[in-house]
Amino acid sequence: MKIIRLALAVGVVLGGLALAGPVTAASASTTPVVYAAHLDPWHGYVRPGRFIFGNGGAPELSNLTWKSWGSGIAWVTGKLWTQKPGCAPSYKCPFYSRWVGVYLNTVRTHGSARYYARMAIEFFVSGKARWVVGWYPHYNCSGCSAFWGFPLVWPYF
Fold first, then answer.
1. Which of 34, 30, 36, 35 has its CA nearest to residue 75?
2. Does residue 156 form part of some domain?
3. In angstroms, rounded to a whole number, what is the distance separating the alpha carbons of residues 100 and 61?
4. Of 76, 97, 100, 137, which one is least surrounded by beta carbons within 10 A?
5. What is the pLDDT of residue 143?
6. CB of 62 within 8 A of CB of 81?
7. pLDDT value at position 142?
């Protein structure tokens, strides 16, 4: 009786493996991308060296050093370039840099591509840490191009 149970159990396991198909390692194609790093909607990047969020006086992330880039999260540090709030006209305002940490997560799919949909940006203002969270894609009108959407607070990503 024990031999019959063992044979049945082995048969079920082997049958399940046969139905599951071949086992393969995850490939690089399953690694998520990040979209619109250079204001180009739905163009995917892996470990971009900078993020551009707008024109004129919009903030920018540069000198990025990627600490990790995985199947579900990515972490990078670098510099956040911003203008002084209220400075106008923008083309006459200098940019200032500060340390920044960027955490990407919440993987979604677009067609066959996996991408990071959430970006949390950490930086310091007057010695206090601040976090600003944005989502991709964000649309501010019907038929508009996708872009990163952040709260309308300084530094206005």
1. 34
2. no
3. 8
4. 97
5. 67
6. yes
7. 67
Mean pLDDT by 10 residues, the chain (157 residues): 42 39 43 94 95 90 97 97 89 94 96 95 94 89 80 84
Q: How far apart are CA 104 and CA 34, in angstroms?
A: 8
| Residue 136 resides in a domain | yes
How would DSSP label each residue in the chain?
-HHHHHHHHHHHHHHHHHHH----PPPGGGS-BEE-TBS-TT-EESS-S-EE--STT--EEEEEEEEEE-SS-EEEEEEEEEEPTT-SSGGGPPEEEEEEEEEEEEEEEETTEEEEEEEEEEEEETTEEEEEEEEEEE-SSTTPPPEEE--SSTT--
Residue 13 lies in a domain: no
When divided into structural domains, the chain yields a total of: 1
Q: Is residue 21 included in any domain, yes or no?
A: no
**Domain span holding position 75:** 31-149
Whole-angstrom Cα distance, residue 125 to residue 127? 5
Stated length of the chain: 157
